[in-house]
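Supplementary Note 2. Why include the ligand at all?

Several targets in our set were suspected to adopt different conformations when bound, so apo predictions alone were not considered sufficient. For every target with a known small-molecule partner we therefore ran a joint prediction. The input for NAP is given below.
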Amino acid sequence: MKLSGWGRYPVIDSQTQSFASLAELHRCLAVAGDLIVHAMGRSYGDSALHDRVLLSRRFNKILDFEPQTGTVTCEAGVTLADLLEAFLPRGWLLPVIPGTKFISVGGAIASDIHGKNHHREGCFSECLQALDLLLPNGEMKRMSRKENRHLFQATCGGMGLTGIITTAALRLRPIRSACIRETRQRCANLQEVFQLFEANPEPTYSVAWIDCLSSGERLGRSILMLGEHAESGPLRLPPPRSLGIPLELPSFVLNKHSVALFNHLYYHGKPDLVAGRLTPLEDFFFPLDRIGHWNRMYGRRGFTQYQLVLPQESSLAGITEILQRTSASGLGSFLGVLKLFGPANDNLLSFPMRGYTLAIDFKIEKRLFPFLEELDRVVLDHGGRLYLTKDVRMSRETFCQSYPRWEEFAALRERLGLQEKFNSRQSRRLGV
Amino acid sequence: MHVLILGANSDMAQALARKFAQAERAHLTLASRDLELLAKQARDLEIRFQIKARPLYFDATDFPSHAGFYHSLAPKPDLVILAFGYLGDQKRAQEDFGEARRIISINFTGAVSILEIIAQDFEVRGHGGIIGISSVAGERGRQSNYIYGAAKGALSLYLGGLRNRLHPRGVRVLTVLPGFVATKMTEHLDLPEKLLATPAEVAEDVYRAYTRGKEKVYTKGLWKWIMWIIKAIPEKLFKRLKL
Ligand SMILES: Cc1cc2nc3c(=O)[nH]c(=O)nc-3n(C[C@H](O)[C@H](O)[C@H](O)COP(=O)(O)OP(=O)(O)OC[C@H]3O[C@@H](n4cnc5c(N)ncnc54)[C@H](O)[C@@H]3O)c2cc1C
Ligand SMILES: NC(=O)c1ccc[n+]([C@@H]2O[C@H](COP(=O)([O-])OP(=O)(O)OC[C@H]3O[C@@H](n4cnc5c(N)ncnc54)[C@H](OP(=O)(O)O)[C@@H]3O)[C@@H](O)[C@H]2O)c1
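The joint prediction is reproduced in token form.
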């Protein structure tokens, strides 16, 4: 069937097969040829795409929950939405939450995702107690930070290339309210938002929306959002109402002017400062989930998200240059997100490192890829890298230069015969 | 509330189980053939919704077992969801009567066999509800799946008759007419995204129709209009179409 990632580019013809049990999974694996797992398809690019994919969405059962410790054991196709629905009313929350709840536990592990609290809590792998991985020879391996540690570190952030994650044990954290106490602050430019990030290491959650099109004095003007769990309040809230984008909008909706207008409205529509407002948790974490398939807004040709991270020392210079080039290019983006990460972990391919991350959406068009090559240069020159789960086009050279442990990863793949069984469009392009 | 789900391993049935567990805090009896999957699903539902769910073996085509199966249930259900079904292979069914018979006995005969037993009980008790999952395929005979379509068409007629019979006793029967649903049944088909519902969407539609006391529900709702058009095409013209 036709398959694509969240960016709706590329769309490929893929042979798909789903599984609901380990027995079915073993049968799928026994068929000759290589494959990759496709879960909720919220990765933007081609990490979950291949000629043959296994769909994990029916492998989605919660297997166990220990109410004393908040440890949940589940199959990899369980979504974060499932976990929120089941455990939030009981006062348990995932310690790491991305910008959408419609991703699977397997996807969260494979991308070693980060949330708005990365500076405090690190990546998803931090809350992972253990996982089971199915290897090409049909062997099931249990791993954790203590057991089979190297394979664990390769699997967290390993983009599905080390085997099939079947089950995971996650440690939830207790919370007292389903609300976040939110503070918003306007920042006139990049320097100001950096200062505010650095002056605010304490709040659990921090992230900024950044206007990627303004230039000069106002380059990098943003709204910084800080959040803290409310101390008390209801744990059960009415579900947020959803709006839908039924059809693909024609791409003219996203031309330079409408994007500039959007950014302008968004920015000026907010008061200077909102202090300590109570926001329902889901609105705080998943503002975009309310607009069903918002990825269709970018039209038929699709879009990509360019997410980079730069070491803290070079962040100001590097991100200034990226923003200057982006606004000059007129390739416009709907949405820019900026965050200060905490330190890197020791997984082989995890993305975060101490420094600033910036994510910008780009509609796919002819001029885009040559332009992004230019941005890659800037990222590399400043010692940064791109997030694999958003990537659809990075070159092998860029990857090898920016992920210093790629050789170790490739060697492990070779040693365990993983290269014959698990490949994605992305792994082929990157040559791992 | 106690809900009995027949064919509980169906992807739509699983979504319905979640919906009823969540919205009605219903206790569930999950009946189907693959007990291992059922047990896993039951445990999952118990953890998620803090309700009771139990797996039970049921084969729609093992007609003689049906009375014993139903009579062993305690307590008796307040609602029965009939979800089992078999799409089969039209081409094969044309050449091999075994396949045609399988399609008919799972989708139609099996449903009649078990629902008659249940209807008897509901009629006596003057209590209960039945949700039967049929298909838009049963609304018009088409060359690409008329054996399945005929079985589903028969099921729809049957459910209509049952509704008529049970109405005076206050027993409700809801006929569900799904269009295309993304389940394991249709996984091998390339279906148009805009007409394709997820099992969770189906569960929402069915639950809404159930709480509103509807007789019949198309899901997605758009199918009501599509089928209205398809049914309006004169047979003289229809027979020439490649559908
Ligand atoms: C609106 C939006 C906001 C987002 N916000 C954030 C954010 O804040 N932080 C962040 O880090 N990411 C974010 N993401 C990215 C997203 O969290 C990741 O791409 C995630 O991996 C998607 O999970 P998925 O279940 O959709 O997996 P897919 O996209 O289907 O797959 C992603 C990768 O995981 C692998 N995989 C999935 N399941 C398994 C398995 N069982 N075994 C082995 N490999 C597997 C796939 O092979 C593939 O390589 C966001 C995405 C969207 C659309
Ligand atoms: N998917 C669609 O597009 C679509 C469209 C219109 C109508 N429908 C109908 O909607 C219903 C649900 O469909 P679905 O797509 O959710 O189905 P599905 O996921 O393919 O599941 C069908 C289930 O039926 C059960 N079953 C088959 N034969 C059985 C038997 N002899 N006894 C007991 N159980 C049996 C199987 O259970 P075990 O695994 O336990 O064997 C199987 O899990 C079906 O009646 C189908 O015909 C489907």
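Chain A is about 30% helix and 25% strand. Residues 43 and 389 of chain A are 5 Å apart (CA to CA). Comparable summaries for the other entries are listed in the accompanying table.
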